[in-house]
Task: inverse folding
């Protein structure tokens, strides 16, 4: 996390890597730490499911999300979402920019005043969270089929914990 000094004032910015994108907790932790914009370098194909994950991270955290990817056939699709799901009570697309597969510079311009206003008014993000209601998400042992086994037949460290 860091505060960026920009032309429109300070912007709290977080970063996560492409693998972090696969887990909602990564973006949530950054939002809870104060991130308004999350930057994500990426190194894999960005197909509809991964692009949808990233859109979801913006929506569920009311956070601007920008992801840069390698260019090339089957790659590309760097993307940014502003996290603003509704304007004047109407649903809207959060997409700010999506690149194709070609190399290029694709600016993502975020309306921070609109994002901050949206965060003050809407229910996602941190306003109505009830961590005690879902403590079982962090207080339980990882169970089959999600226990990962290493070459020695034992659990992979960090994957299975009480």
Result:
């Amino acid at each position: 996390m860091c505060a960026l000094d920009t032309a429109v004032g300070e912007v709290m910015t977080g970063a996560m890597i492409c693998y972090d994108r696969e887990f909602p907790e990564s973006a949530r932790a950054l939002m809870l730490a104060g991130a308004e914009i999350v930057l994500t370098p990426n190194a894999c194909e960005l197909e509809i499911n991964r692009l949808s994950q990233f859109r979801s991270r913006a929506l569920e955290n009311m956070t601007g999300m920008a992801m840069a990817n390698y260019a090339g056939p089957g790659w590309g699709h760097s993307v940014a979402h502003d996290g603003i799901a509704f304007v004047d009570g109407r649903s809207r697309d959060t997409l700010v920019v999506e690149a194709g597969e070609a190399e290029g510079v694709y600016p993502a311009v975020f309306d921070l005043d609109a994002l901050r206003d949206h965060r003050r008014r809407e229910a996602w993000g941190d306003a109505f969270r009830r961590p005690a209601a879902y403590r079982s998400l962090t207080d339980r042992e990882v169970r089959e089929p999600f226990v990962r086994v290493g070459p020695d037949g034992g659990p992979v460290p960090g994957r299975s914990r009480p």
Remarks:
- The mean pLDDT is 89.
- The helical segments are 24-32, 48-61, 112-121.
- DSSP finds three helices and eight strands in the chain.
